[in-house]
């Protein structure tokens, strides 16, 4: 973004250029009519176009310094585009009339020799064009003054052409004045047609396809982007606005997805010179286990705080037991809008159906009917977006309360009770117990428990789960239990880790 000082320099340069070219346009039009020189009159009309273009550039620069408002959330650039379209069409019509009048003079029998007033007018126009080019050349910090500089160069060329036509007409080549005016009218038509075309395309949100392709290549070069689903670009005044949809691996974390989105935003800004880029990312589950897909879908349901223990079982059932005909019709349309197919085989009377169970944590302050609505929505979304599911069982749990400030509690009687409960569940040894309370309430118990080393992991998990339930039921506290094999030397291992560090 340009600094305010540089913008003020551009505004001053464009203001000087506007005053100069408007004065020349008025002088040349009056001189062309008074001296009967179509070339000078045409150059005056061309100067009017330059004045209009300079005014548009000045308005555009002024608008760019104005902040967005509630009625113009994308800014005020479209006003400049509309002004360019209307002004271009008007000058295009004027140029047609110039050509018509010039043709009448060329085919007419009487030759008209322009007066010296026309010579003075063209000379002044050339001097002003040089002045404008010099002023704008020293202030080319942005697109507005750059366009104004190029226009001043074009105006200089047209004035020189008018001077040549005047000299030839003064030496008896009477048609030269008309031919020069036709050439200048052609230049006006060329410039205005380009302005009208670009303005019309911009108003219809047209954009250069090569710009979109550059942005697409830049996006696909970013690590983590699977593919670019959609790119939409448009211009509002000088600003390029882009809306991008990218597909990311469904298993990545939200923070990583946000980081990739930022990289996409900066890449599009760099290659497309975009002033604003909106990035939307979608997950892609092609190579993810079905359990992860279901957990991700459930996590997106409003009211769900956490999802765990997702278990998917498969059974062979008859088709009619899986979904109704209406459900099947819906399922057949899902492939087109982003549903997930578990690759069931529909051949034959029996197919493979899925039975899903999961634990869903919700706000502990919800009423049962409110929590049940969340569970119903989870079941609905999972069935809607994953094909072949016969049943979804949702186990509702209250989410763990937030504990910002806790106090460790030293209570020998309580610790003895905890050890007794653990021993009853098959725990061989407890190496550490941490008891914490919050707001004078027992809330959390941390434990390091040892179990026989030859115990299977499934059996160990069952022992710990029973212990957690007993502590929750008897002591009204949440147990966080770390399990390790009995005889494990935790102290020596810690020393080894410290030595390695």
TrEMBL record:
Domain Cation efflux protein transmembrane: 16-203
Bilayer-spanning residue ranges: 12-34, 40-61, 82-100, 112-135, 147-168, 174-197
SUPFAM superfamilies documented for this protein: Cation efflux protein cytoplasmic domain-like, Cation efflux protein transmembrane domain-like
Keywords: Membrane, Transmembrane, Transmembrane helix, Transport
Principal place of residence: membrane
GO terms of molecular function: monoatomic cation transmembrane transporter activity
Topology in membrane: Multi-pass membrane protein
Biased composition (Basic and acidic residues): 325-338
InterPro entries: Cation_efflux, Cation_efflux_CTD, Cation_efflux_CTD_sf, Cation_efflux_TM, Cation_efflux_TMD_sf, CDF_Transporter
All copies of domain Cation efflux protein cytoplasmic, residue ranges: 209-284, 354-398, 420-486
Annotated localization: Membrane
Region of interest (Disordered), residue spans: 315-345
UniProt keyword Transmembrane present: yes
Gene Ontology CC annotations of this record: membrane
UniProt xrefs under PANTHER family: MITOCHONDRIAL METAL TRANSPORTER 1-RELATED
Protein name as catalogued: Putative Cation diffusion facilitator family transporter
Origin species: Candidatus Nitrosocaldus cavascurensis
Organismal lineage: Archaea, Nitrososphaerota, Nitrososphaeria, Candidatus Nitrosocaldales, Candidatus Nitrosocaldaceae
């Amino acid at each position: 973004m340009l600094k305010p000082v540089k913008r003020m320099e551009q505004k001053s340069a464009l203001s000087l250029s506007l005053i100069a070219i408007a004065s020349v346009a008025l002088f040349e039009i009056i001189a062309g009519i008074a001296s009967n020189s179509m070339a000078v009159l045409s150059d005056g009309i061309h100067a009017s176009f330059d004045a209009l273009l300079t005014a548009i550039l000045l308005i555009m620069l002024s608008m760019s310094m104005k902040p967005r408002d509630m009625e113009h959330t994308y800014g005020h650039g479209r006003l400049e585009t509309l002004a360019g379209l209307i002004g271009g069409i008007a000058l295009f019509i004027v140029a047609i009339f110039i050509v018509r009048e010039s043709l009448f003079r060329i085919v007419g029998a009487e030759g008209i020799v322009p007066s010296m007033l026309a010579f003075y007018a063209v000379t002044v126009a050339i001097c002003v064009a040089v002045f404008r080019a010099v002023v704008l050349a020293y202030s080319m910090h942005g697109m507005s003054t750059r366009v104004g500089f190029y226009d001043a160069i074009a105006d200089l060329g047209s004035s020189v052409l008018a001077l040549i036509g005047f000299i030839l007409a003064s030496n008896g080549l009477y048609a030269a004045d008309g031919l020069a005016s036709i050439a200048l009218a052609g230049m006006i038509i060329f410039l205005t047609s380009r302005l009208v075309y670009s303005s019309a395309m911009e108003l219809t949100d047209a954009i250069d396809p090569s710009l979109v392709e550059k942005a697409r290549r830049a996006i696909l070069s970013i690590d983590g982007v699977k593919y670019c689903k959609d790119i939409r670009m448009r211009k509002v005044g000088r600003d390029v606005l882009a809306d991008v949809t990218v597909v990311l691996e469904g298993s990545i974390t939200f923070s990583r997805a946000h980081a990739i989105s930022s990289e996409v935003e900066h890449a599009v800004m760099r290659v497309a010179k975009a002033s604003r880029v909106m990035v939307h990312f979608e997950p892609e589950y092609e190579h993810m286990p079905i359990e992860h897909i279901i957990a991700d879908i459930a996590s997106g349901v409003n009211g769900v705080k956490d999802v765990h223990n997702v278990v998917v079982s498969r059974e062979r059932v008859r088709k009619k037991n899986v979904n109704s005909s209406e459900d099947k019709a819906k399922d057949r349309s899902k492939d087109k809008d982003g549903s997930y197919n578990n690759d069931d085989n529909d051949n034959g009377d029996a197919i493979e159906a899925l039975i899903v169970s999961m634990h869903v944590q919700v706000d502990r302050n919800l009423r049962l009917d409110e929590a049940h609505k969340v569970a119903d929505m989870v079941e609905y979304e999972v069935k809607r977006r994953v094909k072949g599911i016969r049943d979804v069982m949702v186990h509702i749990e209250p989410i763990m309360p937030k504990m910002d400030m806790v106090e460790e509690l030293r209570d020998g009687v309580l610790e003895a009770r905890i050890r007794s409960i653990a021993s009853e569940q098959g725990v061989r040894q407890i190496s550490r117990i941490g008891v914490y309370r919050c707001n004078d309430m027992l809330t959390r118990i941390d434990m390091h428990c040892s179990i026989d080393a030859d115990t299977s992991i499934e059996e160990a998990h069952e022992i710990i789960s029973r212990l957690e339930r007993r502590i929750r039921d008897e002591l009204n506290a949440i147990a966080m239990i770390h399990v390790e094999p009995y005889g494990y030397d935790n102290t020596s291992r810690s020393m080894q880790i410290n030595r390695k560090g």
